[in-house]
Amino acid sequence: MLEGVKRQGPRRVSAFRHPPFLVLERRATQPPTQEESLRASQEPGPIATPTNQEPRINDRIRAREVRLVSPEGEQIGIRPLPEALDMAQDLGLDLVEVADTASPPVCRIMDYGKFKYEQSQKAKESRKKATHVLVKEMKYRPKIGPGDFDTKTRKVEAFLAEGSKVKVTIMFRGREMQHPQLGRRILDRVAETVSHVGRVEVFPKQDGRNMVMVLVPGQATRRQRETAADHRAEEAAAEEAAAEAAAEAAAEAAAEVLEAEATQSEEVTGTEETTVDSTSPDETTETS
C-alpha cells in the first residue's frame, strides 16, 4: 500500500524565505549575551577632551625652557625647566605656568594652593557685589485721574528706590491715538515727580499704540531738568495759542450770528412795510 508513496526526507528551508537582512534585524532586536556585554565593556571608549582649565604645575609643564618669575614678582630670566623646578622645590613652593602661549612660557614660583584659595574668595566677593537690575513696568492711561496718578507714581518711586529700572507705558485706545501730547504730558509729570530718585534713560517715544519711557535709579541731570522745563514751556505756549485761536473762532462765530440776526430783522421789517403799502384804499375807508 505504501509502495507507491515516496518517502520524504527532512524539509529544507529555502534561503529566499529568510533573507540575510531579516536575520540581522532579528539579531539586532535580541538582547546582547553575557559574552558580548563583557567584550563591549572591555573595549576602550572614545577619548574625552579635557575640560580642566587649570594651569600646568611642576612636572606637568612640557616646555624645555621657561621664563621664570620669583614669588615677589621679579624677573629671573629664561631658565631650563629642571633648574626652575629645583628652585621651586628649594623654596618649598610650586612652579606654575601662568602664560602658556608665550615663547618661552612664563612660569612663576608660588604656593598654588594658597593662590587657588585667594582666587575662589575673589570670585565669591565679585558674585556678592554683582547687582541684578530688574525692569518693572507701570502702565498709565491718557485720561487717568489724580488719585490713580499719585498711587502709580508712588509705586514708580518705590521701585526706583529699590534699585530697579521702571518702564512707564502710556496705553492709547481708539481716538486717543490722535492726541499723543496727552501721553507725553503724563510722562513728563512722572519724570518730574520722581526726579529726586530716578532719571530718564530712554526718553518718551511712540511704540505702536503705546508711548514708552524708561527710568533708572539716580537723580535727574541738569540737562534733563532743562529739557523738561523747555518742553513744559512749549506745551504752555501751545495751549495759550490754542486758547487764543478758540477765542477768536468763538468771537467770529458770535459776530456772524449777530450779523445774521440783523439781516433777518431787516428782512422782516421790509416785509411789514411792503404789506402796509399794498393795503387797498377801500379797506382804509371802511376802517375809518
Describe this structure in words.
With about 290 residues, this protein is an alpha/beta fold. The protein has eight helices and eight strands, in the order ααββαββαβαβαββαα. Among the domains are: about 70 residues, Ubiquitin-like (UB roll); about 100 residues, Translation initiation factor 3 (IF-3), C-terminal domain (Translation Initiation Factor IF3, 2-Layer Sandwich). The strands form two sheets. A four-stranded mixed beta sheet has the order 2-1-4-3. Strands 5-6-8-7 form a four-stranded mixed beta sheet. β7 and β8 form a beta hairpin. The chain is elongated and about 140 Å long. The chain starts with 19 loop residues before the first helix and ends with a helix.
Query: Could you tell me how far the N terminus lies from the C terminus, measured between alpha carbons in angstroms?
Result: 167 Å
CATH architecture name of the domain at 135-236? 2-Layer Sandwich
| Order of strands, widest sheet | 2-1-4-3
Radius of gyration: 48 Å
Helix tally?
8
**CATH class category of the domain at 135-236:** Alpha Beta
- Helix proportion range: 40-55%
Low confidence ranges: 44-51, 283-288
Remind me, CATH topology of the domain at 135-236? Translation Initiation Factor IF3
Shape: elongated
Number of strands: 8
Q: Averaging pLDDT over every residue, what do you get?
A: 77
The biggest beta sheet is recorded as:
4 strands, mixed
Structural class: alpha/beta
Secondary-structure element order, as H and E? Answer: HHEEHEEHEHEHEEHH
User: CATH homologous superfamily name of the domain at 135-236?
Assistant: Translation initiation factor 3 (IF-3), C-terminal domain
Assembly form of the protein: single chain
